[in-house]
Specification:
95 residues, 5% helix, 6 strands, 4-stranded antiparallel β-sheet, mainly beta
Length: 95
Amino acid sequence: MKHSALMLAVLALASLLPAQAQTYRSEATASSFLNGFGEALTIGADAIFVGESQTPAQPGVVYVYRRTDGGAWAEQARLAASDGTPGDAFGHALS
């Protein structure tokens, strides 16, 4: 997925050592930002889940980013409810 215009930086812990961190930068369009991209965020050791709950004419989506073998972050999946309807706010809250 390509985003442009508004920059969004997501910082994720890369290891158990508090001084170590890794940055993944994704460019989000103004419309993505207004759609709630990043409103909900869950960060794990090797995965980041980013919600976008206010998608027009869609129920919302959750983007999954995984750490590659080389240590970089890459978008792996875009999750959406198969039976969702507009306004469901899927991705509004993550845990």
